[in-house]
Amino acid sequence: MRTARDYFFITFGMALYALGFCGFILPEKVVIGGLAGIGTIIYLTTGIPVAISQYALNLILLAIAYKVVGKRFVIGTIYGATMISVFIGIFQPLFADGFTHEPFMNVVIGGACAGMGVGIAFTHNGSSGGTDIVAAMVSKYTNVSIGRMMLYTDYIIISSSYFLFHQIDKVIYGFVVLILASYVADMVINTNRQAVQFTIFSTKWQEIATAINNEAKRGCTVLTGMGWYSKREVKVLLVMCRKIESVNISRIIKSIDPEAFTTQCNVNGVYGKGFDELKVKMKAPDHSLIHKTREEPPQHITPNIPPKI
Description:
Shape: elongated
Order of helices and strands: HHHHHHHHEHEEHEH
Strand content: 5-15%
Strand order of the largest sheet: 2-3-1-4
Distance between the termini: 73 Å
Number of helices: 11
Mean pLDDT: 83
Structural class: alpha+beta
Helix content: 55-70%
Low-confidence stretches: 305-309
């Protein structure tokens, strides 16, 4: 279920994507992946604004997806698809001349903005539609993953621009945007999920654990170990926190025991209470197999013992 905060950030992400596309990529006539790339081809050949063709194609794909993938996917996608077309429709005439006259700089800045916008929207349960819809429909009936299908579709769209305009440099710029946008989107998504794990060895472990509970509002797990050099039992604290909270926890440790032996490492995901929800689709149990197991008693198998000679 989306909140007002989610809708705000989805809107902001789509606006950032549209700004990067209309202000930096489209003025260079570079065809990128997704429906924005198909809209660019239509715009360069017919003059129809990208927002109109992009939204029309999104609606067609969503209508097909309604029957193939389901109502929930369509409802979750239509808001982002609408917002991205609205912002592209506003920004395209405003930034028709672009911001700079350096093609490669425009491509880099535009790709970074597009990737950041997609990443922000994705972390708040948003989607811009386009190749996401095609990938979701294909992955339902084949073993091809959604990410791989999106990549294949984007490659086809970008490569097709060469046969229309015969400009290899524009094709290369399109692939640069694809790679850069994907990388930046992954960074935004992983940074949002990134957490830190502390392992703390200290004689003042009780004070440190209490301070982390009360001041940092994080839990601690107390492990029992043994120092092999001293042959003494030691207590070890295990703490999980968000990356932005790590400085505060480090200060707590140092203020109580400056001699504490501490290790800190990054983890890409922490799931459970106080962190992210583990979103894994569970398989439905095979009830026929359960009933069969209950009805049939276990059979005793006599081992095949070779005869004595």
